[in-house]
Amino acid sequence: MLHEEVVSRVRAMLLDGEIPPGARIPERDLCEKLQISRTPLREALKVLAAEGLVQLLPNRGSRAARLTDKDMRDLFEVCQGLEALAGELACERITEAEIADVAAAHTAMVRHYGDRDLLQYYRCNRTIHEAIIAAAGNPVLSGLYESVTARIRRARYVTPMTPRRWALAVQEHEAILNALQRRDGVGLSHILRAHLRHKREEVLQAGFAEQDEAPAPWQRQA
Amino acid sequence: MLHEEVVSRVRAMLLDGEIPPGARIPERDLCEKLQISRTPLREALKVLAAEGLVQLLPNRGSRAARLTDKDMRDLFEVCQGLEALAGELACERITEAEIADVAAAHTAMVRHYGDRDLLQYYRCNRTIHEAIIAAAGNPVLSGLYESVTARIRRARYVTPMTPRRWALAVQEHEAILNALQRRDGVGLSHILRAHLRHKREEVLQAGFAEQDEAPAPWQRQA
DNA sequence: TTCACCAATTCTGAATGCAAAATGGCGACA
DNA sequence: TGTCGCCATTTTGCATTCAGAATTGGTGAA
Q: Is B218 inside a domain boundary?
């Protein structure tokens, strides 16, 4: 198994919640689960720690990072900034073919909205957002966006929506597609930010802060 | 030596150019220079590779990453987005005391401009930008900003400036401070973006693309 | 002289072993 | 009975070791 594969596997386990937030990560167990030795696993854990997914406690091993409400707010804020930037850049650089792709995904998404199929709706939604990022043609931006969204993905794409909010979101997406087709970068940027601000409010209202696993009150968190 | 210390040391060597861009990094040499064994060094290299400072070639070791013009442009673009976001957030959250600190750094910077002391000027400049980031009160943002600026620091703070551009930069900084004092988030955001756009043009004009170390023509780059 | 091929060396990547630190349990004492 | 301190066990962090791949140098043939 390649180094990057180990990183991906463990990252997936963290993001999918297979390793729950706040849980300790016993190296030995993960080693035998992944059928590798401790050295490559430890390398992967350090990388994931640098990404903010894992918390390293010196001489006390590693834990899956917990996301507080504050973390979630911070991540959403940055995500807003990144999407806004991507929107502006995308309007300058996107090809007609790519616009058509986004339009297709949008149409599919609206259809799933009509069917009230939340899962498929979210899938198309994500496709659209990622297409806009990709259209910005900036690998640095793409990388940071990937890292940030990965951490809020469960919150972003799992939160149930009220009919009212869902309708608003679809409406916003109409505006997003429209701005993109008009190549109105400033407009798109504003819409994306508002869109994400609303999403953030949803998520925070839903109370998606990740709880501590062993919240013994006298143990202060490092 | 702690893990984070190893990462920092090697990162510093890369950013300072002690390990030149494109240079191969023989693990054994660095090990004895840092007085550590290969295991912790390799962990650090993987982390730095995830940060984009190091390029891992499977079974062929690692190289210090080279920055192309495109990389530089991408990094500046993202930097613009992050600073713009930070400017808006800072205007909402900055304290009067922090504004005073920025104002003091600004005054000092203008004085160094009067003395044509580029080094001290850049020092104050950086203080101001970092203070704005810090005032945004978003650790995720701070972390990404730190990572992005580290990679363009040499270009950003080493490029010589024409008198004309320098004067413009100072003028822009007046506007930055002014917007901050008025807590005009949107205005600050725009000024910061223009400021960085100008900076980027300077840097790219100066031709700061990092050359290959061993550009043997028949060796294709991975 | 130049190219191709092969052996030897060097270097990377991963597993194992060892010392140090932390965790948990047991007993002593207040 | 509850708390503190000490010792055994577990786990981490690192050095060392081992296997495999890549590079280098050399040899021979065209």
A: no
Contacts of B44 in chain A (CB under 8 A): 46
**Between chains, do B140 and A51 touch, taking CB under 8 Å as contact?**
no
For the beta sheet containing B24-25, the strands, ordered from the edge strand earlier in sequence to the opposite edge, are B24-25, B62-64, B54-56
For A191, the token pair is 């819409």
ipTM > 0.95 (yes/no): no
Domain boundary among A64, A79, A100: A64
Instruction: Indicate which CATH number applies to the domain containing A48.
Output: 1.10.10.10
**A92 CB neighbour count, 10 Å cutoff:** 11
Q: What is the pLDDT of residues A112-168, one digit of tens each?
A: 999 999 999 999 999 999 999 999 999 999 999 999 999 999 888 778 889 999 999
Same domain, B77 and B56: no
Q: Which residues does residue A62 pair with via DSSP β-bridges, in sequence order?
A: A25, A56
Could you tell me the two tokens for A120?
Answer: 């498929």
Q: Which nucleotide is nearest to A61 (CA to C1')?
A: D12
Handedness of CA B90, B92, B93, B98 (dihedral sign): positive
Compute chain A's Rg from CA coordinates: 19
Supply the range of the domain harboring residue B199.
Answer: 69-205
Nucleotide in closest CA–C1' contact with B5? D13
B108 and B198 in a common domain: yes
